[in-house]
Amino acid sequence: MKEYKEGSIVVMKKQHPCGENRWEVIRTGIDIKLRCTKCDRIVMINRVDFEKRLKKVVE
User: Fold this and answer.
1) Is 58 helix (H, G, I), strand (E, B) or coil?
2) What residues have CB less than 8 Å from 11, skipping those under 6 apart?
3) Which domain holds residue 53?
4) Given pLDDT bands bounded at 50, 70 and 90, which one contains residue 1?
5) How many domains does the chain have?
6) Is residue 4 part of a domain?
7) Quick check: helix, strand or coil at residue 9?
8) First-residue to last-residue Cα distance in the chain
9) Residue 32 near residue 44 (C-beta atoms within 8 A)
10) Burial (0-12, 13-18, 19+ Cβ within 10 Å), 1
11) 23-51: per-residue pLDDT in tens?
12) pLDDT for the residue 23
């Protein structure tokens, strides 16, 4: 399991439709709340899917 916390910047396997694949972790728990670093779109994803789609933790 990779280490991430609120405020971490993570890279996902697939890009967001705006073209960016870097996300900021806003909230952790059962669900993970992410903000796209380019267009500021906020999405929520469950922890299991998030850990499958996570490529690496940048910061």
Assistant:
1) coil
2) 21, 22, 23, 54, 55, 56, 57, 58
3) 9-57
4) low
5) 1
6) no
7) strand
8) 16
9) yes
10) exposed
11) 999 999 999 999 999 999 999 999 999 99
12) 97
